[in-house]
């Protein structure tokens, strides 16, 4: 039985925001919130988020108010209403058109940092809000034109809908579902090393995007078979994790390996191996590393280890 519950929340989950979807089309509310001195703005610059304390190992999100927020908004980039945080409106604003956004801000406001580098150190609520802003701003900057007729799109619903000015089509934020799975056979789990991994010693769970007309369980079985040649039987859901790098949601599973001989797809993987629990416990001594602590891949491994 591989129905292993999640031991704790995944990174980028647990948002403190009330998304307040009913406010998005309230033009008076949005106009007043954009100009209220207590409203919070989380800026995004070329997919990076504003933080301070990164160099000290104690990062925290920097949300702007008042004049600082107005200065960033003068970059005239996309923006969107994210929701309410303890009653205060929160907006994302993209300032990527500025070559360097820091001169727009008062001194000591921090620096723009890749969220993935510090997500495991941020307070959970802050990581979720920054991920929300990053994902929505990515969609806004990449969907300025209609995919149907090619005409320019204009934002509506406080940045959550793009409406084509030619054919009138409405376009909504896109999230691509991807399955990620730890395949288990006996006392061993299947981990692979991808060509895409920057860490040359890292072995991680297999993963792949869900294809049209495919259930999640079917996607798990197909991806494992394609990448490693392993047949999969039972599939059990574990948890999910928003992954706005740029626009995915990771759907985590444990899966039953029915075969043992590995036949890898060399276009997808450099290597794949079965690892016992003892080998995973001693991974540093054995010369390989595990996925980042903030990743759902690591949670799948750790929860199996503790089962």
Defining key terms:
307 residues; alpha+beta; 7 helices; 30% strand
What count of helical segments does DSSP give?
A: 7
Taking all Cα atoms into account, the compactness measure Rg is 22 Å
Order of helices and strands: HEEEHEEEHHEEEEEEHEEEHH
Q: What distance separates the N and C termini?
A: 10 Å
Q: State the major sheet.
A: 6 strands, mixed
Which segments are poorly predicted (pLDDT under 50) over 5 or more consecutive residues?
none
Strand portion:
25-35%
Choose one word for the global shape: globular
Q: Write down how many β-strands occur, each being a DSSP E stretch of 2 or more residues.
A: 15
Helix content: 10-25%
Structural class: alpha+beta
